[in-house]
Amino acid sequence: MNNQQTTLDLSTLQQRRSHLTQQLQHPVMLWSGKRAPRNFPANTFPFRASSHFLYFAGLNIENAILRLDGDRTELYVDNPDPGEVLWHGEMPQRDDLATTIGADAAFDLAAASQHAADAATIPHPDDSIRIQQSQLLQRTVDWPLSDRDRALADVIVSLRLCHDTAAIDQLRQASPVTVAAHQAAMAATPHAQTEAEVRAALEGIFLAHNMTPAYSSVVTVQGEVLHNEVYTHTIQPGDLLLADAGAETPSGWASDVTRTWPVSGRFSPTQRDIYDVVLAAHDACIEKAQPGVEYRDLHLLAAHTIAQGLVDLGILRGNPENLVEMDAHALFFPHGVGHLLGLDVHDMEDLGDLAGYAPGRQRCDRFGLAFLRLNRMLEAGMLVTIEPGFYQVPAILNDPQRRQRYQEVVNWERLAQFQDVRGIRIEDDVLITNSGNEVLTADLPTAAAEIEQLVHAPKSNTPSPIEPQ
Question: What is the pTM (predicted TM-score) of this model?
């Protein structure tokens, strides 16, 4: 159990629970999960509760079950073992936790199985932990979802898609810390010898604000490796450094930002050309993001903008619209333009595509659309990322079938002149509002000249920890 205090008021939690139970015919039981061992049982990874549990409980309680039935809330959790006081200090008792989260009653964890037979739940995404969940509830908890569990998942998606005021307040706390972290990383780059040193400067800002990385930070000179988690490469003059990192608040709400900058403080002409193409796609999508717009159309707008830019640079040949139809842009921009953001960095993706794809829609197998994570009409209250990119991925560009298919539309000789551009991504967190959108991370510049200035900033201008809003 965690002794932190909830930052959400009880009225918000009660309102979320009421909205959930009013739409279901069954009680709901949500398990927070357990710590996973790193190697031996006593050495565990840090605990982080299930996001579905957090959304309705508001507190990071380990190995606890929240039972919701009509207007009644019950908490099932064991009192802390007195022997643990030596190692972890005094921990809150079960009744204290129940009061904090506004539960009507609290019971031993073992008692939960007596009420689980007719309850709906969400399977834990980790296989080994899901087995423990099934044993705890003494009922099958697995994929594919039963009808009652699927009904619960659908309602949770409907509630979490558009953030309430309390959630937006939390997300606003993560954003400025993430901005400061990226500024610190840029300022540290001229004095760093390895990616790890830049990562340390970046994540140090998170830690200084009692926050954690919302996901494994990407800090790499190998920007073509989309989720690179290696930090050992030496930083060399002429390299681009791509940093994809976001802070997570103590209550679990995430930020997700990417910037790419020249380690020397100046983009080369070829790097600047590609950077401006990616930035044009980024800006075009943000300008169009508003209620009633299909997110898939934003992705295609990014694809068209990148295709046009690559035609203008002589890398692609042909009409941009035709190039996108044949997925030629995906040779360099293979992923989707973004995703939902909230309690998870890819919000609710533990439910597969239930959240990301509107009812009746399914993933497409087209090269240029297969990795689209979000295919819904935008609504006020949604928080999405906008993150177009350009990458030279050897596994894509050297694939014989793709070389054959796109041999007439790619100017390979011209592309060879851009070998100092391995990967560029620019990403911001965009809140959809009634009148358009608000970029929560707008305080972190995107223009190339401003990025260069941040990398060249004097030591006295190195960002210091800030007070979250």
Answer: 0.94
